[in-house]
User: Which sequence fits this backbone?
């Protein structure tokens, strides 16, 4: 434990020393870091993940356009250092309030909105090469997991099969968790908490010998890291279940290849082996969901056009087929459309059938 | 009934319509279409007359305007000046007969051409309240004042004297009116308040005291004691004459021959030019003006256009003057920079004119709103139909961005700015009878734009210099304030002394001030 915390502490001190050194020499304090943003995000075909390119960006304190951001970045660094020293963690919201104040003699606040401190934290990640969690900043926890797994978390032994109807809620930082016993053949990750509850009630994980995991909407960092660790450390395949719509496809894409906003973390977060289980265009026909489609709106159509041109989807025949089907149907389908065939149709028929037939898209 | 007798019956009903009767039924033509405008029109007629009268006899004007609210829609207007007064015999005619006056047929820069006359106000008062207008006038310190109560006989368009006496009046000379009328009082861009404020700007030699219906008192102090140059009357220039006008002139001239008519009744026509005009028109130089047919008049007009005649004299104009205008603006607008320009005289359609422009910038003027555009024609504020006139066009077609202002497309610029444009002319060209806006003559717009640009360039230099200095100061203080904050964070990270870091940062700022402020864009 102690060792793990030494590195971030040292990195932050190094950053301070570097700047002090520049100031000591009478130089304009300067931060150099890899440029974040779309123009410097590239898809690494070898690692099959998004990462940042080589473009560098320099920020100087004595520059009107940079001064405030420069200060914000150093402010979060300072807060991070104090957190590490005290062995405490702060949420992103806490961090915002920690640095928010009015600069004396001015009407300017160090930060006015949380989005600014969030950005400063991301900058600090890029500058130091440390993940947010290592800097003791946590996102909100968000997500549930159940299965025949026993873990050790901060000295507590937790059995994921014995946690009632809520399951174990996944914290934002899963680095220090130890897996004591993992008895599962695969992990099923789903977009919707409501579907997770359905499967949990049906004891799907028990019947199928698997782990079920979910977070509401976009997959959080904690969830992604947990999926990655289980996949790497216990060699478990991961199947993703989302709605048949561009947003669902993107959730899958982020787990597998990473996202633009976290490209600086590169392959630290991506899981190239995950497979897409459904809902696929073919499922709509095979499971007679045609009557339960929802028309695509303009936003959906625009998002679809963007996603289908992503480098990793562009030349993938199976995925292009999905987009073509969606275009032809001019419609999307929710996972819950399966409930039209019976409330437990999903756990009794749909999922076992798909998994047996290995009916996935890669 | 036969057709013939119908015509007879009709003829019995047909009769001449008196001008007053006509206006009784068409009060909107007098500018009294709205109750809010009625009050303004009444003040305007009276004040313009007072100022013109004072200018005539070189009395430095002292004008007092007092509006009393009698009920929600009824007001009593009392206007008093220290002008020369009006001779007894003229009083009833000036106030009690429509379209009676001396200004309409003259080519001389004055204010009064711009209204229909004070008698229209008397008529409006009579129509809405039934009350006569009370007039006191005194022409000499040694004489008593005359008091009249006048109405208009609308059928005959003749004054009807209701009361008359001589009284004592503690004043050397002057005129005082008391008029009751139906109206509505409001504040804002088209109010009496605004009208008088602007009048004071354009007439810095006048002192105006105004008490509005809310009993708020405003005193516009005299800015200059010099009298504006007295405008001289000029004869019409041939280029400006139109057919109807020419025919009327031919009819009423004292000249015996066409040649002498042309040389004596027009400016800039000598015997050579007159002969040329006659020759081109195919008319004898000795023809009697009265014998010239409308057809021949038309030929004269045509030939005038083909001949080169030198421009009319321009010494007849009396601009405010750039120095005086600047003083006046300084008094009325709380700005930080003022610039004015009076152009040289120019000519449109044979009428001489001068354009003056004044700009007031910064200070307490609103930064977020469009610039305030103040328009004057012969020192009279134009409050209506801003967008219809050539002043609006010349302001909006100017690119204000080089002068440090924001402007989106062809709009009035946005920024802390007041734009004053004054046209002084023997005959200001209005777009309509209402005389709210100046017509779009290319010569006039060109002069306005040149004057704006002249002022604008100077403003631009000022804005760039001052805004830059101000911004730099702000930048330095920004860094000064950020330094302690940054020093604290860096010292915490590097585990070094906070004060040392702070002092070192301060020194960097001090030593590199110039680079930091100027190489801004390059350091990116």
Assistant:
């Amino acid at each position: 434990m102690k060792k793990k915390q030494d590195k971030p502490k040292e990195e932050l001190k190094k950053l301070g020393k570097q700047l002090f050194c520049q100031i000591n020499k009478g130089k304009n304090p300067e931060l150099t870091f890899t440029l974040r943003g779309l123009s410097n995000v590239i898809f690494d075909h070898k690692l099959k993940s998004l990462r940042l390119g080589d473009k560098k960006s320099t920020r100087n304190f004595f520059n009107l356009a940079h001064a405030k951001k420069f200060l914000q970045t150093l402010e979060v660094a300072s807060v991070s250092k104090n957190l590490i020293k005290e062995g405490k963690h702060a949420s992103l919201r806490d961090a915002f309030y920690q640095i928010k104040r009015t600069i004396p003699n001015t009407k300017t606040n160090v930060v006015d909105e949380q989005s600014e401190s969030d950005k400063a934290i991301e900058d600090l990640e890029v500058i130091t090469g440390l993940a947010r969690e290592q800097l003791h900043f946590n996102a909100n926890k968000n997500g549930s997991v159940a299965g025949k797994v026993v873990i050790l978390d901060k000295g507590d032994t937790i059995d994921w099969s014995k946690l009632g109807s809520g399951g174990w809620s996944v914290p934002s930082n899963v680095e220090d968790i130890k897996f004591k016993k993992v008895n599962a053949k695969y992990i099923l990750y789903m977009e919707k908490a409501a579907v997770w509850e359905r499967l949990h009630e049906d004891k799907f994980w028990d019947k199928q010998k698997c782990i079920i995991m979910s977070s509401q909407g976009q997959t959080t960092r904690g969830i992604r890291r947990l999926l990655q660790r289980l996949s790497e450390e216990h060699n478990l395949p991961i199947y993703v279940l989302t709605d048949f719509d561009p947003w669902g496809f993107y959730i899958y894409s982020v787990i597998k290849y990473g996202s633009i906003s976290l490209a600086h973390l590169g392959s630290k977060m991506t899981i190239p082996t995950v497979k897409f289980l459904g809902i696929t265009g073919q499922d709509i026909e095979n499971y007679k969901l045609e009557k339960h489609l929802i028309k695509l709106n303009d936003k959906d159509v625009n998002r679809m056009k963007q996603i289908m041109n992503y480098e990793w989807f562009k030349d993938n025949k199976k995925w292009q087929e999905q987009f073509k089907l969606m275009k032809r149907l001019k419609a999307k389908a929710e996972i819950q459309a399966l409930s039209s065939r019976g409330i437990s149709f999903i756990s009794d028929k749909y999922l076992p059938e798909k998994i047996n037939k290995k009916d996935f898209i890669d | 009934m036969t057709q013939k007798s119908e015509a007879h019956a009709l003829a019995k009903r047909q009769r001449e319509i008196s001008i007053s009767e006509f206006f009784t039924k068409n009060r909107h033509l007098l500018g009294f279409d709205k109750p809010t405008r009625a009050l303004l029109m009444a003040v305007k007629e009276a004040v313009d007359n007072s100022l013109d009268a004072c200018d005539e006899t070189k009395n430095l004007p002292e004008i007092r305007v007092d509006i009393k609210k009698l009920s929600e829609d009824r007001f009593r207007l009392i206007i008093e000046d220290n002008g020369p007064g009006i001779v007894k015999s003229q009083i009833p005619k000036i106030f009690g007969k429509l379209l009676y006056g001396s200004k309409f047929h003259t080519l001389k820069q004055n204010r009064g051409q711009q209204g229909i006359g004070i008698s229209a106000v008397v008529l409006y008062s009579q129509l809405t309240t039934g009350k006569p207008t009370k007039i006191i006038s005194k022409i000499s310190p040694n004489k008593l004042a005359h008091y009249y109560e006048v109405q208009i006989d609308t059928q005959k368009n003749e004054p009807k004297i209701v009361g008359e006496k001589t009284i004592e009046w503690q004043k050397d000379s002057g005129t005082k009116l008391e008029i009751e009328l139906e109206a509505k009082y409001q504040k804002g861009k088209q109010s009496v308040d605004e009208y008088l404020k602007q009048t004071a700007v354009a007439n810095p030699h006048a002192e105006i005291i105004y008490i509005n219906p809310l009993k708020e008192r405003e005193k516009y102090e005299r800015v200059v004691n010099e009298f504006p140059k007295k405008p001289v009357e000029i004869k019409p220039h041939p280029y400006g004459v139109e057919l109807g006008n020419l025919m009327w002139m031919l009819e009423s001239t004292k000249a015996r021959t066409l040649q002498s008519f042309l040389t004596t009744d027009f400016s800039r026509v000598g015997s050579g030019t007159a002969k040329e005009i006659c020759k081109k028109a195919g008319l004898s130089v000795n023809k009697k003006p009265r014998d010239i047919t409308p057809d021949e008049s038309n030929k004269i007009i045509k030939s005038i256009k083909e001949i080169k005649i030198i421009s009319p004299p321009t010494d007849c104009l009396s601009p405010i003057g750039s120095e005086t205008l600047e003083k006046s603006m300084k008094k009325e607008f709380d700005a930080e920079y003022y610039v004015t320009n009076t152009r040289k005289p120019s000519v449109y359609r044979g009428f001489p004119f001068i354009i003056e422009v004044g700009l007031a910038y910064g200070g307490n003027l609103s930064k977020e709103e469009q610039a305030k555009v103040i328009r004057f024609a012969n020192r009279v504020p134009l409050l209506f139909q801003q967008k219809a006139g050539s002043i609006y066009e010349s302001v909006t077609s100017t690119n204000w961005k080089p002068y440090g202002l924001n402007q989106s497309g062809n709009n009035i610029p946005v920024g802390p700015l007041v734009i004053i444009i004054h046209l002084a002319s023997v005959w200001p060209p209005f777009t309509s009878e209402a005389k709210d806006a100046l017509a779009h003559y290319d010569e006039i717009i060109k002069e306005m734009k040149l004057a704006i640009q002249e002022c604008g360039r100077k403003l631009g230099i000022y804005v760039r210099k001052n805004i830059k200095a101000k911004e730099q100061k702000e930048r330095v203080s920004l860094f000064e304030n950020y330094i302690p904050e940054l020093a604290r964070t860096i010292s915490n990270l590097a585990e070094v002394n906070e004060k040392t870091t702070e002092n070192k940062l301060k020194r960097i700022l001090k030593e590199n001030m110039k680079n930091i402020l100027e190489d801004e864009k390059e350091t990116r």
In short: Chain A has two domains: 2-28+63-138, 144-356.
